[in-house]
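Researcher: Here's the sequence for the chain we discussed earlier.
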Amino acid sequence: PEILQLKVALYSSFRQKTYLLQEREQRLKETEELLKTGRKLSDVLESLPVGVLIADAEGRVCQANEQVLKIWGFTGFEEKESYGEFLGWWEHDGKLIKASQGPMARSLRSGEPSHNELTQIKRSDGTSKSVLSSASPLRSFEGKIVGVVVVIQDVTEHKHIEQDIEQRIQKLISSEIEGK
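Model: Thanks. This is the structure I predict for it:
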């Protein structure tokens, strides 16, 4: 009986270790899939013609694509340096995050998305840009807000063209009124 008990215990131990190894192998596969998905997401984010920021529930930027750095005027640095510079600038002058009525803060607070809000930003070189910003909350499976995605599109050139057209129309109207 003692030998039988020892054999059963040994067999049970092997079965338990086999089960744990299978479970660990499954977790490794899931992690690999998650990493692949993360890489695909990063590739997609970098290929977009708009800036994309991902922030946590406190509004701390976790990820930003290269377009965001370009919009804010951070170019010519290595990626790691640019990102660090950008984060410092964002914390200092980040109206989209810090403004209590900004799209990011509202999405984090209310859980409601915002769409295409025109905002003036100050770039790292002191110049201004007009951007459209949209923010959408990120939720956990339980529905709790765990972060936010902000999409930023530079519309400065569009605004300049719009102003130029308005000025030309005003000149045309003025010259026609004066001509009468």
